[in-house]
Amino acid sequence: MKNYFSKSKEEVLQEFQTTKNGLNSQEVEERVKKYGKNQLNEEEKVSTLAVFLSQFKDFLVIILIIASIISAISGNIESTIVILVVIIINAILGTVQHIKAEESINSLKSLSSPKTKVLRNGEKVELSSEEVVPGDIVFIEAGDLVPADGRVLDSFSLLVNESSLTGESEGVEKKSDVIEADELALGDQKNMVFSGSLVSYGRGVILVTATGMNTELGKIAKLLEATKEKTTPLQVSLDNFGKKLSLGIIILCGIIFAINLLHGVKILDSLMFAVALAVAAIPEALSSIVTIVLAIGTQKLSKENAIIKNLKSVEALGCVGVICSDKTGTLTQNKMTVKKVYVSGRVVEDTGLDDTRLAEDIVLKESVLCNDATTEVGDPTEIALINLAKKYSVDYKELKEKYPRISEIPFDSDRKLMSTVHEIDGKITMFTKGALDSLLPKLKSIIHGNEIRAITSEDIKEIENINTMFAETGLRVLTYAYKGLECEKDICYEDENGYIFVGLVGMIDPPRLESKEAVEKCIMAGIKPVMITGDHKVTAKTIAKEIGIYQDGDNVLEGVELEKMSDEELKEKVAHTSVYARVSPEHKIRIVTAWQSLGKICAMTGDGVNDAPALKRADIGIAMGITGTEVSKDAASMILADDNFSTIVKAVTTGRNIYANIKNSIRFLLSGNTAAILAVIYSSFAGLPVIFAPVHLLFINLLTDSLPAIAIGMEPSHGEVLKEKPRDPKEPILTKTLSSRIIIEGVLIAIFVMIGFYFGYGEIKDAFKGSTMAFAVLCLARLFHGFNCRANSSIIGLGFMSNPFSVLAFFIGFVLLNGVLLIPAIHKVFEVAPLELNDILIIYGLALIPTIIIQISKYFKYKR
Ligand code: ATP
């Protein structure tokens, strides 16, 4: 390993042939070819063939193979061929669907891949971290994930957490100075940063020395166990259900086999009965439907600006009972404009400053100098301040060049302050701006016009009053203070003291237009919206009231009050508290935990570097796509591409809808299967001939049933899901209501299937025709039943065409069925008897009746 820590910055820059403009496009291209992308080699991909072969491990497929053997033994070669073809088609479909689901997950991954700021062709650009190459100059700041290994070129209070590499949870301070040593442990390489660590404070500039598998993280990547969550709780519970069902089916098949033997049926026929029953009972499409619906759902969510990082969260979304949201930028527009300024003892409008006086002049200078933004980029709070100065013809660039920053302590949301040092007209001056509560105890003097004097208790009272007055109109307030320093120096926290108060700047950040409606929807859906903000209590409450989050009688809690409470006390208060103000990221964890101890599933937003633990703790951690730090995105389970609260509500609605759709698909598949099982059992007990050939049931289960099941999974939201309470996460998917519906609808269809059978069987006991009619009624009745399972409301309420996929699925199934019934050439393969027009009409009629009955009952039940 090369020891870059013992080399000077210039030596390293030269070694990588990087200039102060960074790399140019051609150099980048060459280096990508030479070093590859900056990514860790993912575990080896399972080959398509292996995926295909794994489809044959299924219990169903084994049953089908047995069925094909029995068919062959009984001399029915066509049937054997059909079954084998079906097995292969099924395996191909399974493979395609597996690959599609992987693709959709991978595309989501790339949507949420971390970004980094790089100097290229002399300009600072934002790229996906994958595109970083050795020799790149990269800018890192609090909240970033370090994208690659690098030598520190510049450090401004840069603090990096390297716990993922060294296990040391304390942040390490990074400097650019050369370290004279031959060998050093990673933790001691204080002028190097390593891929995968988190920048917890300050900012820095680094030269990338290694990327991808060549980084320190890459070296240990092979040892790290990839914790991929491939299956969701729903999939696990359905798998378990499938296993239990299989066991039940085997037992049932054994019983039916024995009964038939006792009835004197031949062994082969009895076996055929048992196999038909097994094929009828196994819901082949179930697990693939769930995967498909979840995959389609996550795609839909990403179109709605909610990027889901794992499928598990889609399910949890549907259970969310509390949404704890940041205020600034999520509920509000994050478009700040200064409205009022309090300086020299009076409140003036944004354009009313008399900048010939010292106090007012300091307001303008501090606005620009104690500020990291430009007019376009940066924190909106700070952009607003630059814009304020512009109103007084201050050229912010010129001012920044004239009075360069000598030292700084960056803003952080725990301290709620920011300080910078400049030399102004020969005097070393320290500016500090931030929250009044943080600055008030540190004030010593006050400036009025051109005069500085000691601050009095009356002054403080007035400042507090003005602060409250600003906040009551929803303004976000920043306090300005400054002081002189004896000499140039690197400031630290101890220097933030003994200030001269300058003024208060109040800025408006209007609520997003959609917030109010989204809050209403939340409340209607039984979800509690909660505002958690670093802002002032009164500002927060005013905005919360405007949006509808705060209602009369609710509590508003402040961070300091929270600190005094025990967990038990907080648990008692939490349900009635709708606003938390002046909250630090650490408090968020306590709020989430308190809600969780009340049994609620809690979604929590966060954007800052310190929000990661709360995001991890929440059931759904939500990071901000635009303003969020990379660390918060890394910890979150969902990323809001538009930072918008209403997107969370949309995502919850979609999450509920996806779950409802999966449930409806299951209802559709299982009720159809129940009908088939009941028909088989009935005919066995009644001593009738084998009612269905396995090929019939395969045709239905694998062809005509799969499409409506998928179409049901794609049912759009009808708002029904918002009228319900959040789902209990422990509630099984097969609730009592669902099971009873499945049974009732199954019985209903089975009755008409048997009527169909008797029609065909007739007095002459034509078993072949009877079986054909039973098969056709079952198939068509299930196709019609697809419309019943779309949602709770009747089809009139839903609108026939509101889900065009369901119409298409029906149509395809209908054509396939009629093809089988009407094309004589394939009759033998599908084991159907030729039918007359009359029979066909009877089939249509019988198949439609269960759906008419179900629709009428729905109409009356869900009329409201
Ligand atoms: P949230 O996004 O969580 O709703 P917020 O963005 O209002 O809250 P913070 O950014 O932590 O919360 O701001 C908290 C307080 O810190 C503000 O009310 C303001 O007084 C002060 N503050 C915010 N930004 C700056 C800044 N750039 N410089 C100095 N002080 C700031």
TrEMBL record:
UniProt-listed Pfam families: Cation_ATPase, Cation_ATPase_C, Cation_ATPase_N, E1-E2_ATPase
A Gene Ontology molecular function term of the record: metal ion binding
Primary localisation category: membrane
Gene3D superfamilies: Calcium-transporting ATPase, cytoplasmic domain N, Calcium-transporting ATPase, cytoplasmic transduction domain A, Calcium-transporting ATPase, transmembrane domain, HAD superfamily/HAD-like
Entry keyword annotation includes Translocase: yes
Species per Swiss-Prot/TrEMBL record: Fusobacterium necrogenes
Keyword Secreted (UniProt): no
SUPFAM superfamilies reported for this sequence: Calcium ATPase, transduction domain A (SSF81653), Calcium ATPase, transmembrane domain M (SSF81665), HAD-like (SSF56784)
PANTHER family, alphabetized: CALCIUM-TRANSPORTING ATPASE (PTHR42861)
Signal peptide, first to last residue: none
Residue ranges constituting the Cation-transporting P-type ATPase N-terminal domain according to the UniProt record: 3-76
UniProt record, GO biological process: export from cell; inorganic cation transmembrane transport
TM stretches of this protein: 59-75, 245-265, 271-296, 666-685, 742-761, 805-826, 841-860
Enzyme class: hydrolase
Cellular localization per UniProt: Cell membrane
GO terms for cellular component: plasma membrane
Protein name as catalogued: Calcium-transporting ATPase lmo0841
